[in-house]
Backbone:
């Protein structure tokens, strides 16, 4: 992917949106990890923990980008990203943010790095999928995601609370990214077309691609809406006196 072209800017916008919608809970839990430290150590622990998280997340992202080049893993990664997009909508009613607590500086640092590594899997997979193997976009995605996770929790929460549409837009971007990963899978070239595909079937390949994009986005948004509605109905039923 060439620098500063329309596809490059489109992928960068997708990465930034993915970072925004997936980083909120991560930032809150990481902040809670150091909440028992003295005030003068809290910022220090988060700052040094951020440096460690950058290294861990960089290794994870590069590893995912490399793994996605193995035949079959683009399909697996795409299906995994679809599940993440669905959970993003289905879980938005859960406002609890219990997390690990550390009482020492080094304990907080370790907790922050480990928490970011464990909870950043969805973010790493989303960024790697949206970057389409472009390492400059991977690096930019890392540079954008770490400050959001470490320092931007309040901003992310205010944006999401004020504009709930951001969550749905982010889920749609994740679903579209997942669909593009699935369509790019070499093993599915007979369905979606590839370098060695028949030119006479190009129209059918295009229809199959766009049908997959539409099905992924509509399916995720629809399933997320249904899950949210079901959860609200269950909560309302529990509030009704028996």
Residues:
């Amino acid at each position: 992917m060439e620098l500063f072209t329309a596809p490059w800017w489109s992928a960068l916008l997708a990465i930034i949106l993915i970072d925004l919608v997936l980083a909120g809970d991560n930032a809150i839990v990481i902040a809670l990890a150091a909440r028992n430290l003295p005030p003068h150590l809290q910022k220090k622990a988060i700052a040094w923990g951020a440096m460690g998280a950058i290294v861990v997340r960089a290794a994870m992202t590069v590893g995912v980008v490399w793994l996605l080049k193995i035949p079959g893993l683009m399909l697996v990664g795409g299906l995994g990203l679809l599940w993440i997009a669905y959970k993003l909508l289905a879980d938005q009613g859960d406002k609890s943010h219990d997390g690990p607590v550390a009482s020492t500086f080094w304990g907080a640092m370790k907790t922050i790095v480990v928490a970011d590594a464990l909870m950043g899997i969805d973010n790493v997979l989303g960024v790697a999928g949206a970057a389409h193997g472009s390492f400059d976009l991977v690096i930019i995605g890392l540079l954008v995601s770490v400050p959001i996770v470490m320092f931007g929790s309040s901003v992310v929460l205010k944006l999401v609370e004020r504009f709930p549409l951001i969550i749905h837009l982010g889920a749609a971007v994740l679903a579209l990214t997942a669909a593009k990963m699935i369509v790019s899978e070499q093993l599915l070239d007979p369905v979606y077309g590839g370098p060695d595909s028949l030119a006479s079937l190009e129209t059918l390949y295009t229809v199959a691609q766009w049908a997959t994009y539409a099905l992924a986005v509509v399916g995720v948004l629809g399933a997320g809406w249904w899950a949210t509605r079901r959860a609200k109905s269950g909560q309302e039923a529990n509030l009704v006196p028996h």
About this structure: Residues 6-239 form one domain. The chain has ten helices and no strands. The two ends are 61 Å apart (CA to CA).
